[in-house]
Amino acid sequence: MRQRQAELDATGVRVYAVSFETPARLRAYVRRHHVPFPVLADPRRVAYSRYGMLRGPWWRIYSPRVLWRYAQAYARGERVHIQGDTLQRGGDFLIDGAGRLRFAHVGADSFDRPPLDDLIAGVQALR
Q1: Helical H runs in 12-57?
Q2: Model-level pTM?
Q3: Which residues in 77-95 are b (16+ Cβ under 10 Å) and which e?
Q4: What is the DSSP letter of 10?
């Protein structure tokens, strides 16, 4: 997402990330990784629960497909960041200016994300 931040900015969309980590851990992560958008702390996982992002089963989170993707990222020299509750599923959501949920994707594992092109197209459709 960072590589296409200018494109996202051009749509007028505001990007937020939500994490179950504590505010102190998030501040350190944002500084270290130069995250270009706000990251909100939800250590009690209220948003996670309301959006149906429950913890995933270990056999899906650590499936051969996921482990292979981590190995590929490591081989490309990418920093593989695994810490915290690795069973917590994430998601991607588009919420319009009136607060209506327009798109929802709850990931089955850490690599199950919609293509950024689809998210950008969804944002453009909301305009």
Answers
A1: 23-33, 46-50
A2: 0.70
A3: eeeeeeeeeeebbbbbbbe
A4: H
CA distances from 97 to 20, 46, 78, 101, 116 (A): 24, 21, 35, 10, 20
For residue 84, pLDDT over 90 is answered with no
**pLDDT tens, position by position, 100-120:** 888 888 988 777 888 888 888
Q: What is the C-alpha separation between 97 and 102, in angstroms, rounded?
A: 10
d(CA 22, CA 57): 23
What does the DSSP assignment read for 69-110?
A: HHHHHHHTTPPP---S-TTB--EEEEE-TTS-EEEEEE-SST
- What token pair was written down for 69? 């993707």
Q: Is the dihedral of CA 42, 35, 108, 50 positive or negative?
A: positive
Q: In the chain, what are the domains?
A: 2-126 (3.40.30.10)
* pLDDT tens track for 28-80: 989 988 888 889 999 999 999 999 888 877 777 778 877 887 788 889 887 76
**What span, in angstroms and rounded, lies between the C-alpha atoms of 98 and 112?**
28
